[in-house]
Design goal:
Elements (H helix, E strand, L loop, with lengths): L17 H8 L16 E6 L2 E6 L9 H14 L9
Antiparallel strand pairs: 1-2
């Protein structure tokens, strides 16, 4: 056994929502994005003149590891005060 030291880091407390993902990436790959799945949080958001259906408070799913990496890279461009990466 040996000691290791980690540099400070933060981790999100919740999953990335469909709305968060769509606002950054311009699409919602989720399978469960119809009002029948989320009658209380369903909405359409606008992104560059197109409408994207989202269940606003549901986590985004149906994304690959590469999709998640691309999301993190996009977040780094939007918010350079933090470094976004997968854990």
């Amino acid at each position: 056994l040996h000691k290791i030291e980690l540099s400070p880091f933060s981790i999100m407390r919740s999953a990335v929502t469909q709305e968060n993902y769509a606002r950054v990436m311009g699409e919602n790959p989720s399978r469960f994005k119809k009002d029948e799945y989320c009658p209380n949080s369903f909405k359409e958001i606008s992104f560059k003149d197109k409408k994207i259906a989202v269940c606003a408070d549901h986590p985004v799913e149906n994304v690959s590891y590469e999709d998640a990496q691309n999301f993190a890279q996009a977040m780094n461009k939007i918010d350079p005060s933090h470094i976004y990466s997968l854990p």
